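dumping this here so i dont lose it
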């Protein structure tokens, strides 16, 4: 349970919950043009959580050295040693793969464009 809690803290899972209304608002706007099922809504939520988790993990990896030097961020998971860079990299890879897989569950176009979406959310960190 401790490692799971560390991963939730690593990507600030509570912030994903906060971001859900934005993803669901986008789905609601799309619904007006093309109604879809509750299963698709679940895949939209999964995509949002996986993409956000991958992006946050990537951000934490990229910023780990700077975070260690800043008193406000020095206690984040990588700088304090709660997660290794390898663990964090594995997490980003798994979340990215889960996002791509979930995107294909929506439709082929979403699936094929999902690496571009990941590139955009990763670029934000840089």
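and the seq i came up w/
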């Amino acid at each position: 349970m401790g490692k799971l809690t560390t991963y939730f803290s690593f990507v600030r899972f509570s912030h994903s919950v906060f971001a859900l209304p934005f993803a669901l608002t986008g789905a609601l706007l799309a619904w007006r043009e093309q109604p879809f099922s509750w299963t698709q809504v679940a895949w939209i939520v999964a995509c949002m959580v996986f993409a956000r988790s991958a992006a946050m993990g990537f951000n934490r990896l990229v910023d780990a050295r700077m975070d260690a030097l800043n008193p406000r961020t020095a206690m984040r998971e990588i700088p304090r040693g709660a997660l290794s860079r390898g663990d964090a990299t594995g997490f980003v890879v798994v979340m990215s793969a889960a996002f791509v897989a979930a995107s294909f569950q929506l439709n082929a176009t979403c699936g094929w464009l999902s690496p571009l979406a990941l590139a955009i959310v990763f670029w934000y960190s840089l």
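Residues 38-69 form the longest helix (32 residues).
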